[in-house]
Amino acid sequence: MAFTLGWEEWLSLPGLGLPAIRAKVDTGAKTSALHATVIEPFGPASKPQVRFLIQPDPEDPTLEITCSANVIDQRQVTSSNGQTEMRYVIEADVEMGDRRWPIEVTLTNRENMAYRMLLGRSAISEDMLVDPNSSLVQPTLSFSAYKGTRRKRPVKRPLRIALLSREPGNYSNRRLVEAAEARGHVIEVLDTNRCYMRITSNMAEVHYDGKVLPRFDAVIPRIGASVTAYGAAVLRQFAATGAYCLNDAAGIVASRDKLLAHQILAQARIPMPVTAFANSPKVTRDLINLAGEAPVVVKLQQSTQGRGVVLAETRKAAESLIDAFRGLEANFLVQSFIKEASGADTRLLVIGNKVVGAMQRQAQEGEFRSNLHRGGQALAIKASKEQMSIARKATRQLGLAVAGVDLVDSADGPLVLEVNSSPGLQGIEAASGADIASLVIQHIERHVRTLGPARDVKATRTPSE
């Protein structure tokens, strides 16, 4: 008789000290995944191990269990929303009903997911049957199994933080350094281009000016648009060392590629202006028609601070502009122009799935771009529930923890113009009066906590240490 599973089941992972986990059974996913934060590798390279924290009950973040396991692999895993990340792979015994069997599990942050575990098809043997129309076929467990487990407060300790940027003196970077040091942490500003890597199957290393860098607890990436590809590679290497990356490489790359970002947002049914893209020079006229007739906005596929964004007020101007961009072999998008916005947009700052600041930006007279770098003026506002919901969802879909989400008001409601993975802090702090930099550091503190004896951190900021 087949061992039947529903689309959701309770199970336990006794080897990890987890007596009850509610899991989604998903035969569409090959790999099983377990929620894990503050992932710390340790042990010799020949026999690596990993420690991590898990909050098994999504409704009770104070219930926190420390787990450890042998690492059997590290592999690239692509999630259902198309984001790829390097994950640690462990082996764990699953117990469900009267059956117990070993499976491979990858560790990833699932704090925004309804289920702390996903059971993929590689964990389901041939004699098991999954009934997609049934749930909780096997015996039901409950989180009362953790009764008596000691609740832990976050352990405060000095963190070692790297800030990746080629502009250490700009406002945002100075504020982040000030905020980190005010909270007792050691923060080092590293030039992204001066980082380089030693890539092996045993131990990941990042080098800087001729010396290997020490292990960092966290990395704040503020990578310039011109070095996105190399910066993402450096960030992936830091992640491989076990550092918590405020925004991961996949999220940054997706947000910088406007075409990819719009496709991801569209798949998640997030409202945005009608966008058209083509490669053939023979479809210029139809491309403009797809965007909804002139005036239209033509955007370079990779642009920041309003550069490479041009308004074509007539069809003739749009055709000439498109032909010019094609002559430069530039990739670009054509978007509908939201006339009723009157040169205004709204920037919402999201940290850890929470909107922590909002401002309305108004373009100067004669300019349709409201970017502050283009002379726009900022005014603090109270964002609507709809705006906040859209901003949080857009940030999550791109796999970001921190983002500036730009919305424009249309006749059909708020539309997402852009999601910025390295948002500037000066405008939003000045307009809102909020200490955004400190909120960023506090978010890092919540995700990087000691699991064993606190490591010694020397109070120095020389990257060559």
Descriptive key words:
Rossmann fold, Cathepsin D, subunit A, domain 1, five-stranded antiparallel β-sheet, globular, nine-stranded mixed β-sheet, 465 residues, 27 strands, alpha+beta, Dna Ligase, domain 1
Give a quick summary of the entry.
With 465 residues, this protein is of the alpha+beta class. Helix content is 21%, strand content 34%. Among the domains are: 3-146, Beta Barrel (Cathepsin D, subunit A, domain 1); 160-247 and 443-447, Rossmann fold (3-Layer(aba) Sandwich); 274-337, ATP-grasp fold, A domain (Dna Ligase, domain 1, 2-Layer Sandwich).
Give the CATH class of one domain: Mainly Beta
Radius of gyration: 24 Å
Shape: globular
Largest sheet: 9 strands, mixed
Total helical segments: 9
Write down the overall mean pLDDT: 84
The end-to-end distance, rounded to whole angstroms, is: 62 Å
Which architecture of one domain would the CATH scheme give at its second level? Beta Barrel
Fold-level CATH name of one domain: Cathepsin D, subunit A, domain 1
Strand content: 25-35%
Q: Can you tell me the residue ranges where pLDDT is under 50 for at least 5 consecutive residues? A: 451-465
How much helix is in the residues? 10-25%
Record the strand order, biggest sheet.
Answer: 2-3-10-4-9-8-7-6-5
Please identify the oligomeric state.
single chain
Number of strands: 27
CATH superfamily of one domain: Acid Proteases
Backbone structural class: alpha+beta
